[in-house]
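User: quick one
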Amino acid sequence: DGGITQSPKYLFRKEGQNVTLSCEQNLNHDAMYWYRQDPGQGLRLIYYSQIVNDFQKGDIAEGYSVSREKKESFPLTVTSAQKNPTAFYLCASSVYSGPLHFGNGTRLTVT
Amino acid sequence: GENVEQHPSTLSVQEGDSAVIKCTYSDSASNYFPWYKQELGKRPQLIIDIRSNVGEKKDQRIAVTLNKTAKHFSLHITETQPEDSAVYFCAARGGSNDYKLSFGAGTTVTVRA
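Assistant: Done. Structure below.
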């Protein structure tokens, strides 16, 4: 939606499994981001990428990994090392110093 | 890094009244301050933003003010309507990093009919 597509909308996994969340954008934005949202908390930055083949850790990167092989794509892997993976995950993109445009999110439930 | 604090966490207003949400930031070099609205189960959407070279910006019933000296900025919604009920997030970016955006914890606004 709005040029940023996240899939799937809902994802269920067993504890101990890695899971990859998809994020694709057709806005030709250079930068892409992953945020985590928990009830009663703001959006916390996991990773962001300013350019292809480069990315930086955000505030809560432990237990997550990303790749940026194409400008349009920025997948997030939630690894088994992430202690509390159940959350709402939002992907976003932007141009340099511009506002973030968000996807519709993926709600991950790990049991 | 940047730390953004947002108050209040919840706000209930009578339809037609005004709502004000306040945020403070820690990095004096921050230069971009957007506000997002998130309805239940949906993605955050930008409603207004302001850059550090401007003190106030308005868009119909919504306005944002920025006080760089005090490092705080506020969202003002006038003549509130039921569709204004949502969670509102402030954010700040800048200093040495023109990409990283730090968010406040959010304010749940309820407009009573």
